[in-house]
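re the bet — no i am not wrong, look at it urself. input seq straight from the record:
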Amino acid sequence: MRSLILAAGRGSRMGSLTDPGPKCLVRLGGRPLLEWQVAALTEAGCGTIAVVGGYQADRLRDSRWQLFVNGRWSETNMVASLLSAVPWIDEEPVVVSYSDIVYDPDAPRRLALAPGDLAITYDRLWRSLWEERFADPLRDAETFEVDTEGRLVEIGARARSLDEVKGQYMGLLRFTPKAVSAVRDVVAGLPDEQARRLDMTSLLRRLLAKGFPIGTVPVDGRWCEVDSETDLALYEAHLASSTPWVHDFRWAGSAQGTAATVTSGQDDPSEAAGR
């Protein structure tokens, strides 16, 4: 199966760490986030990979994947990056990954096998991770609910209590061409400004409102989101500890990594930082 990594943004909350290149090149556990994603997707059987770049996109050129570029990355959001890969994503089902998450290959593997035209993964054990990341977990939490058959019924609104958060959307999705067509219809019906700024959870809410079914795949930990330097420090401490961590995303064999790194064969980081 195909997979698409959305890596157009800079990641301004990462501070100076993203001066030399995109957020997905920030290192965690000894390698860039993008390398963890490529390795996990390949292990999951989703190894026909494309990447959508934007900020310093030239740093993402690599023979292992096809590169698309969202030239308006600074004024658009995730959905615009997704549609930058049209018509490639129109041709067959594709697993889509955010570029600031790391995960065990079991998550995309199960997602690829999920029924229906559109499905997402979510973490049932999200609260322990959010309590470590935030003094108040509700500060960053959004509503999330599935029905008894595992279909998404609510996502992305401001949560008033933890009872409204039945899981954490991870940033892993699977689209069939039919689902991509539905996305394009939603975007086409919006004013230009709204279309440019449309984020993924808002898109999912709009699809639900139109009656488009969205399936879900639950996971229990074994992933994390990198959104700040504080996140990096927290995760590095866990990875260095001998204490078991439910959100440890590494898997058997992952320590060997990949033979190449995304920065090989690219221009000098000092030159890229000056652009």
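see?? The chain has one domain: 2-123+169-226+243-259. told u. also The chain is about 30% helix and 25% strand. so pay up
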